[in-house]
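In practice, a research group might receive sequence data for several interacting partners and want a quick structural hypothesis before committing to experiments. The following worked case mirrors that situation: the sequences arrive first, and a predicted assembly follows.
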Amino acid sequence: MLRSIRVSILLSFLIISVGLGVLAWRSYELSARLEDGVNTLAMQYAGYAADITARRIDSAVRNGIFDASEEWQQLERKTPNPDSEMLSQWLKSNEWITSAIYVPDSDPTHSIFVSEPPNRATAAAKLTREFYTSSGLVRYTYDPARLVEHVRPVLHQQPLMQRSQSDPQAQLAIVTTPSRHGEARLTDGFTYVAPLAPPLQGYSIRAFVRTAYGTSGWENARYFSIWVSVAALVLTALGAYLAMRGLKREAETMKLRGALIANVSHELRTPLSMIRLGAETLKRSSKLTEKQRAEIEDAVLREVLHLSHMVENVLDVARIQNRSTKALAFTPVRPRDLLTSLISTYESWIKSRGFEITVQIEEAVDEQLWDRDAVERAVVNLIDNAVKYSGDIKFIAIALRQVSDHVVIEVRDRGIGIASTDLSRIFDPYYRAQFSDTQTRRGAGLGLTLVQQIMVSHGGRVEVESTPGIGSTFRLLFPRESSRVAEPLPALNVLPEIGSRS
Amino acid sequence: MRTRTLSVVIAAVSFLIVTAHADDKKPKCTTPPAECERIIRQMLSGRRYLGVQLQELNPGLSVKSVVEEGPADRANLRPGDRFMAVNGKSTKDATIQDFKKILTDAKETGRLWIIVQRDGILKKIELRMEPYTKAQIDKIVAQHLAEAHAIVASAPPQP
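A structural hypothesis for the assembly, expressed as tokens:
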């Protein structure tokens, strides 16, 4: 089941990352394509605008020329015999014409000629044009530059422009014809140069379309989107990694919990069956000697004690794990008295197992604010471990001392020790070091967990030093509270029996 | 409303004054006479002319007058001739503008084939437009100088 969950999570992350990748690629591709499209459009629009405007200018030029001849012919119709005054009036109304001569059909020698002042007439190349009228011929010279100025207003009509659009899409200009026509790519846009038709073949229309605003700004930078996608991918990968790690830890806890159920049930059943066996023996067999009876009673009592110890451990771990810190009752405790009474309780049991025990207690340890029961349980657990995991040398050393800011209780043994790989995990719930003979030693894997939880709730910590084959040293470091309690409370210290715990 | 009328009246009056003033002053050509002469000669040199004045009938075209010693005169075009076709195009219903257009088309060669109707008889006339003679150009220049520059050209200017 776990495997399938893991696979599905991996799969979903895979799908997400693949989707992100595809999205990133698509957006990159689309933006590239969009830019291509914008460029094409801009190029085409530039060409279109230049061409259209050139044709418009051409037609404006043609119209100007035509209007001038029309105007003259209307004047001629009004006045059958034109004089120089009429001709100069015509010249004035068409400001781009510099001089004109009218030759009547009836008598060429009676031509009239009008020219504008030379200061206005530039030295630039002038063009000549003529047109027939109903009664003669008009021939005039004009300045192409001034004709360009005459038709320049056409530039303000942007081709394909909506009325609502305020800024022109193409910048149009009349330029003198460059060496090359057609489109050109600039850094920020496109230009297109379209030639004008004669007589203004010396000029061209240049349209410039800016394309830069489509791609400027950081939010439009294509590489920005790529980097965002990469960052998203990295984050997804990180998320996948974290989820997998969490899942792995969960799986381990599950495994440990499964081990506990098997373990605890085994651990509970063994003393129970022992007790049952003892009780039945006591009940049925009346022929037991006094000595045998006492042995069986001792055995039953020991098993009961063991059972209650284990149940207490399990319950305490559960209670402290659920953060019900109210379970702890802090009272002023003399560490020396606590340890002395504890050792006196357990000394006979330890010695009965063949252990040598040395106790080293500093006299001047201040009274501390501890939960007496909890600390006792922690120390008992450590002693229990020392007994359980003993080797050939059966030795336990218990010490109490006071360092600069800690009160230290030390339990040292010369047992089988703990491998360094296990050292970091011995405080995990239900974890039991993988010795070859772990199964022969009874326990639920909760003892050290409880020790650590008790130490944490007292604001202290547990230190372990261990060498496989030589022995282990557990140190309980309590924060020292020297001046808190001034008055000793000896009455509370006398609680010699385990059974008196609440 | 009233102010607008007033402004229109003022504009009209001022326009009248200005135009009257302009009328007072005889329009003079401000270009130097030599420059004028140069431009006139430049503009007229090589210019071909036909030397005929037309009038519009209804419909059609006919010769009103012929310039003496002009190309038309030499080709024997006479006043009253009606143009039926010019250079292969019918001018039976043409206006002067149409005819001028044909002249423009034939500007390069200057050749004209004209079919005229004179006294009910169709006649083909072939002629060629000719450039202005030097005497004509001189006369035009002299006239312009006399009119616009108040210089009486007693003798033809030196070329």
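Before designing any experiment, note the following. Residues 20-27, 153-159 of chain B have pLDDT under 50 and may be disordered. Residues 44 and 51 of chain B are 14 Å apart (CA to CA).
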